Amino acid sequence: MNEPKNPIKLKEPSVYQLGLWPQDEKNALLPDLPYRERLVRLLMGNLDYHGHDTGYASHDFHAFPAKFPPALPDAFIRGLTAPGDAVLDPMMGSGTTIVEAYLARRRGIGSDIDPLAYLISRVKTTPLDGEALRRQLYAIIDRANHCIATQPEETLAAIGARWDQKTREFIDYWFALETQVELAALLQAIEAIAEPAMRDFFTLALSACIITKTGGVSLAFDLAHTRPHRAKVVFTASGKKILDADPEAEISPRTKLLTKRLRSAIVEFRKRALQNIQSLSELPVTDFPVDLHLADAQALPVASATVDLIVTSPPYAVNAIDYMRANKFSLVWLGYNLSQLSETRKQCVGGESVMDFPFEPLPPRTAAIVEAISAADPKRGKALHRYYSEMTRILREMHRVLKPDRAAVVVVASSEIRRIDTETHRCLAEIGETIGFEVPGVGVRRLDRNRRMMPAGHIVNSDSQIQRRMHEEFVIGFYKPA
Ligand SMILES: C[S@@+](CC[C@H](N)C(=O)[O-])C[C@H]1O[C@@H](n2cnc3c(N)ncnc32)[C@H](O)[C@@H]1O
Predict the structure, then answer these.
(1) Phi, psi values for residue 419, rounded to 5°
(2) Residue 231 to residues 208, 217, 219, 322, 337: CA-CA distances in angstroms?
(3) Are 101 and 73 in contact (CB under 8 A)?
(4) What percent of the chain has pLDDT over 90?
(5) pLDDT at residue 186 above 90?
(6) What angle do CA 463, 468, 469 make, to 5 degrees?
(7) Which of 59, 62, 91 to mutate to test the pocket of ligand 1 (most atoms within 8 A of CB)?
(8) Where are the domains positioned within the chain?
(9) Whose CA is nearest to atom 2 of ligand 1?
(10) Ligand 1 contacts CB of residue 313 (under 6 A)
(11) 193: left (phi over 0), alpha (psi -120 to 50) or beta
């Protein structure tokens, strides 16, 4: 194995680097057992992972909804595979599984249809020289400041030339003009970097300044879990009021809530980039590079019978989290137009559009749930049928790429439609069995309400059975027999 290029500077002692990762002790008991038995033991263990560190190495580079805790893929990777084995996440999101595979010296393979997920996962698994990044960061900031001071309009016009009318209007609605100039100047400086991995690193740092819980440098509030709201009253960093949606209106508590003090994109970018450079120094150089794809999990660009373990979490049934809604705030800056992004959104598992959709036949229990929901709400019943059809094709692909005597670990939550539980874990288990998987166990994990970003509708107080369910996830073990 090559020596790391970077001197390792840790924020605090990192358990994985000290070889003291908590699951190692438990897993040390497992290697002698057959694979299937190890899978069952892991599924029956404690899968909650409350209080575990989630921010080591590159895990915190960028916000992403419904990430799972790194300790979850880590436990299955270390318990079921050996260094050099292939670990796949076909819906990798922010790449939690891929980072854990990388840290454990397994060959991470990932795919996602969201270009932002693809960028995040790539950057999080590419070690770079910290000193070179620091020098590059200051060059970017100098260049951007120079453009802002000398030719702000030309800089914005050059970046703006890539947008169609609708995208332009979106940018004008959601970003103050001075933020637009700052972002355009930063982007121009980043795009001039010759080395692709470095360019990606800084592009991601820029995106991370836009997509945050508080809406980052945009005029939005909350790009994490609800429909974004635009600020009603906006002050610049220096205290100048630049927007007042309704100057005559009395200042109500709601207006106060929707008042935003803009932060400088240059300052935020510098902070974020420095933080990510520091964290990247925890990422060792390994001899097992990752293999990532911008691809649909229903048609994986992966050869048959080559994968040793899959750990993944698909979207919730029926668009409970709209990934594109938040991600488009930075993807428009990266050169995507809204029309392209709405095409990607249509391909997302769990979407609602069913026009010309190729439905799959469903096994009995799953068909009965779809039927019950269709009786109460035909449109959403169809959307649920779409979801289970997509998951049928994805499970088929997972079965194809797995080696025999190997497993897929799939983390799902149930949803409620018209007060009927979609029973996602039971339906997926049933579908998996019709495809040729065995399902030797389904683990339950209780969500840490303080940490997990949930869709707003799922945050409830009552303790009815279905509502309790919303604070649980199911970890399904799909075993491909030898
Ligand atoms: C729950 S998130 C995964 C989160 C991930 N486990 C993490 O820790 O960041 C689900 C992901 O599935 C992706 N996805 C949705 N439809 C897809 C498809 N047809 N093919 C591949 N990925 C898809 C979404 O873009 C999203 O990134």
Answers:
(1) 65, 15
(2) 19, 12, 6, 21, 23
(3) yes
(4) 68
(5) yes
(6) 155
(7) 91
(8) 15-127+283-314+349-480, 130-279
(9) 93
(10) yes
(11) beta
Highest mean pLDDT among 52-56, 180-184, 285-289: 180-184
Q: CA–CA distance from 39 to each of 10, 45, 203, 235, 321 (Å)?
A: 33, 10, 39, 54, 29
Q: Residue 93: CB within 6 Å of ligand 1?
A: yes
Q: Which CA distances in Å does 479 have to 149, 322, 400, 445?
A: 60, 30, 12, 20
**pLDDT value at residue 239:** 79
Q: How far is CA 161 from CA 167, 184, 299, 424, in A?
A: 11, 11, 34, 44
Q: Report residue 406's pLDDT band, with 50, 70 and 90 as the boundaries.
A: very high
For 274, counting Cβ atoms within 10 Å of its Cβ (0-12 exposed, 13-18 middle, 19+ buried), the class is middle
For residue 68, what is the DSSP state? P
User: 365, 371, 399, 364: which is closest to 385 by C-alpha?
Assistant: 371
Q: Whose CA is nearest to atom 5 of ligand 1?
A: 93
Closest CA to 403 of 317, 310, 318, 292: 310
Tell how strand 241-244 and strand 233-235 pair up. antiparallel
Q: How far is the CA of 349 from the centre of ligand 1 (A)?
A: 8
What's the CATH code, domain 15-127+283-314+349-480? 3.40.50.150
Q: Please choose from 113, 325, 386 the residue to mutate so as to test ligand 1's pocket, defined by most ligand atoms within 8 A of CB.
A: 113
Using one digit for the tens of pLDDT, what is the confidence trace for 122-176? 999 999 999 999 999 999 999 999 999 999 999 999 999 999 999 999 999 999 9
Instruction: Name the more confident of 222 and 74.
Output: 74
The protein residue whose alpha carbon is closest to atom 15 in ligand 1 is 348
| 297 Cβ closer than 6 Å to some ligand 1 atom | yes
Residue 452 confidence (pLDDT):
46
Query: Do the beta carbons of residue 179 and residue 204 sit within 8 Å?
Result: no
Reported as a pLDDT band with limits 50, 70 and 90, residue 460 is very low
Q: Got the DSSP string for 363-420? A: -HHHHHHHHHHHHH-HHHHHHHHHHHHHHHHHHHHHHHHEEEEEEEEEEE---EETTE
Task: Tell me, using a 6 A CB cutoff, whether residue 315 lines ligand 1.
Answer: yes
Out of 68-72, 163-167, 219-223, 375-379, least confident range: 219-223
